Amino acid sequence: INVPKVKFKRLQKKSKINSSGFKLLIEKVREIQKQRFKNSTTFLNSAMTQEEIYQFCTLEKEAKIFLKKAVKAFDFSTRSYFRILKVARTIADFDNQKKINTNHLAEAVQYQEKNF
Length: 116
Description:
The two termini are 17 Å apart. Helix 4 runs parallel beside helix 6 (102-113) and helix 5 (78-94) crosses helix 6. It is flat, with a radius of gyration of 15 Å. The chain is mostly helical. The protein has helices spanning 8-12, 19-36, 50-56, 61-74, 78-94, 102-113. Helices cover 63% and strands 0% of the residues. It contains 6 helices and no strands.
């Protein structure tokens, strides 16, 4: 499985969002999660139950294929699998997407890979 690295040149670019912009973006994502869990005792994606993960972590077709390959290639545990889905759901929320796509999963896998 090929997970692309961020190029150095991109890391050197100054963010177009300042701290108040980040605050607004985080507030927007928190509102998305608040609406998602309005009928639940869960408040954040990180606290989703397994049932909620199945309900709210809808993957695009290509994303399912990517995740299957990633789980096999990195020998992820069940716990890691669900953690990746929770993180990918949050990344998709920042991207204002209802479904999780391959880019969201690739980023989440990169974060998980750092935990080895």
